[in-house]
Amino acid sequence: MNTNKTIFLSIASQDDEELKHTLQNAFTNAHNPERVYAGVGLTAMHSKTLRDLKKISKNNKRVSYTFTKQRKNDISTLGIGKGRSKAASLYKNQDYFIQIDSHTFLSKGWDANLINLYEEARQDLDLEKFVISNIPAVYKYCCHKHKDPIKAEPDSRYPYFMTHSFFVDSVPRWKEFAIYNFRDEMFLPVAKVSPAFIMGDSKFGRNTGIHPNAIFYDEDFTQSANLFGNGFSFVFLNIDDFPVRHLDSNGIVKGHSRYFFLDYLNQENNKKIHEKLKEEYYKFVNDPKNKETLSRYRQYSKVDPIKGCFTTNADIVPETFNNTGEGS
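RESULT FIELD:
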């Protein structure tokens, strides 16, 4: 393994107290912290989040950020697509590009482990353009006084689309399960990327597939379709000790909390942002420029962007990694 290979962590954050812990463990737990760079797209209403990030960036020149001021009941500045786009804009041609959430724990030696796994997948699968993507494993804190996170089950979460089920009555719904109980292969094809962890090389860094108008539930489908349309294959790491973990909402404790839309918006504006989500999603799937991409992605993922999933549970793992067509 070449220890000089560099990694860029792309992190969107929204008034997240966990952000400072994520950045700290990313560098502290890296086998070679000197090769790690981080770009944060921060949207915040509270000054503490920005102060913490400014301090980190001042002490570590490999951490850069953009900042958007959030105001009460302002839906124009909210949206995961905006945050991820701003974070990705800070990429400076590092060798690897990794998209994560701002509530992420990276275990000891995560950088060396992920590079080794990515390069092993490249060699074994002989893919020209691909990303590895898992729903990260879970971590939590036992109490607010406990400084170090603890591992929680499951280790590997494989995503799949559900049959005729939708988020906010529009976006095909997905769930996940512990596939390592059923499949032995280390590398598995998967129907969609999971935006909380996507890793690729510089090809991914230069073309992340992020839909800048995505609000929340729609980002999985839109980023997956965009990446697939641009020739990327999707690889799932079927390992029982995934080096990246995620703080789910039910694991939040004092000192490690984050804000959700409801914390910024009253009931009326919360309804408006969900209507905006549906509006932007329908614009995406009905855009003539996306017709070819969505047609090809539909054939691969077996999910119709409007009518829903038409696969069966027996077919949740795609038959192949290959994605050789040219997308729009």
